[in-house]
Design goal:
This protein is an alpha/beta fold. The chain is 57% helix and 11% strand. It has a seven-stranded mixed sheet, with helices on both faces. It is elongated and about 65 Å long.
Length: 288
C-alpha cells in the first residue's frame, strides 16, 4: 500500500531530502512550511504519514498541536537528533502510531544506500513496519532501539565528538598559526582539519543543541576529561604509554579493524592536493 507522506518543514534542506526520498519510493508527498499554501493541519487531513522535519523545540510544539487531530491509522514520526523528549511528547499527544526516526546523515547525502537510520517505535504497528520496510528496500541500515539508548549513544557519537572538534579548533586558534598549519599537516590531520571546517560552516545552534541538550552529554564529556587526565599521567609522567596502548590493542583493537581499513582506503585514494597560499607563492617568486 502506498501511503501519502506529509513533511512539516518540507522546504528545508532535510525536509526537501525526505520529500525526494519518499517520492522516489513511489509515495505521493506534500509539504507544509512557512511559505507554503498547505498548512500542517492540511497534512493531517490529507496524509497517512506525517514527518516533523523541524528543530526539536518546534517539533515538540507541533506534536502537541497536531497530535490530538491524528487518527489511530496514521503515523507520526520525526527526524530530530535527540529522541527522548520528542518521542515522549508524540506518544502523549496522539492516538496515532508513533515512531522516532533519526537519519544519521545530512541532506547533502545523495543516496540512503548504506546509511544508518535509527528507529524508536513506541510499540509494534503497521506504520513502523511500513517505514522500516521502505527504508531497508532503498538500502538503509536500520537499527531499532528505545529513545533512552539512542540519546545515551548520541552523547558519544554526536555530543562528545563535536565537543572534541570544537575544543581542538579552540586550541589551534590560540596556539598555532592557522593560516600555515595545513603545510605541517599529515593526511590524518588534514581529515581532522576538514571536520573542523565542516563544523564551523554549519548552524551553531545545531551543535549547541546536540551538546547542551543531550541529557547524557555532560556526563560523557566529564568521563572524557577524567580518562584524558589518566592517560596524560600515564604517557607524560610515568612513561607508560606503550603499556597502555598495548593493552588497549588487546582489548578493543580487533573491533576497529574494519574502521581502520575504511580509513586506509580513503587515504590511499589521496586527498586533494594543497594549493599554494598567496604568501607561499610570493616567497617562491622572491626566491626565484
Amino acid at each position: 500500500m502506498k501511503r501519502t507522506v506529509g513533511v512539516i518543514g518540507g522546504e528545508g534542506k532535510m525536509g526537501s531530502w525526505l520529500r525526494r526520498f519518499f517520492a522516489s519510493a513511489g509515495c505521493p508527498t506534500l509539504s507544509a512550511d512557512r511559505h507554503t499554501s498547505i498548512s500542517p493541519h492540511d497534512l493531517v487531513e490529507r496524509c497517512d504519514v506525517l514527518i516533523l522535519s523541524v528543530p526539536i523545540k518546534a517539533a515538540v510544539h507541533l506534536a502537541r498541536e497536531i497530535g490530538p487531530l491524528l487518527r489511530p491509522d496514521q503515523l507520526l514520526t520525526d527526524v530530530c537528533s535527540l529522541k527522548r523528549d520528542i518521542v515522549s511528547t508524540m506518544q502523549g499527544s496522539t492516538k496515532a502510531q508513533v515512531v522516532g526516526m533519526h537519519p544519521l546523515f545530512g541532506p547533502a547525502t545523495a543516496s540512503i544506500q548504506g546509511q544508518n537510520v535509527i528507529l524508536c517505535p513506541i510499540r509494534p504497528s503497521d506504520g513502523f513496519a511500513w517505514l522500516r520496510q521502505i527504508l531497508e528496500a532503498q538500502g538503509a541500515v536500520v537499527t531499532v532501539t528505545d529513545p533512552e539508548t539512542h540519546d545515551r549513544t548520541m552523547a558519544v557519537v554526536q555530543a562528545l565528538t563535536h565537543w572534541m572538534t570544537i575544543t581542538l579548533a579552540a586550541v589551534l586558534n590560540r596556539q598555532l598559526d592557522i593560516d600555515s598549519i595545513e603545510r605541517f599537516a599529515t593526511p590524518v590531520f588534514r581529515l581532522q582539519l576538514g571536520l573542523i571546517g565542516r563544523l564551523l560552516h554549519q548552524d551553531p545552534e545545531l551543535y549547541d543543541m546536540l551538546i547542551a541538550h543531550n541529557p547524557e552529554g555532560d556526563r560523557m564529556i566529564e568521563t572524557f576529561l577524567v580518562e584524558g587526565e589518566k592517560l596524560r599521567r600515564a604517557f607524560v609522567h610515568r612513561q607508560e604509554g606503550t603499556t597502555v596502548l598495548t593493552q588497549m590493542q588487546a582489548d578493543v583493537g580487533q573491533r576497529f579493524q574494519a574502521e581502520m581499513e575504511r580509513l586506509e582506503a580513503i587515504l590511499d585514494r589521496g586527498l586533494a592536493p594543497l594549493q599554494p597560499s598567496s604568501d607561499t607563492a610570493s616567497r617562491v617568486r622572491e626566491d626565484s
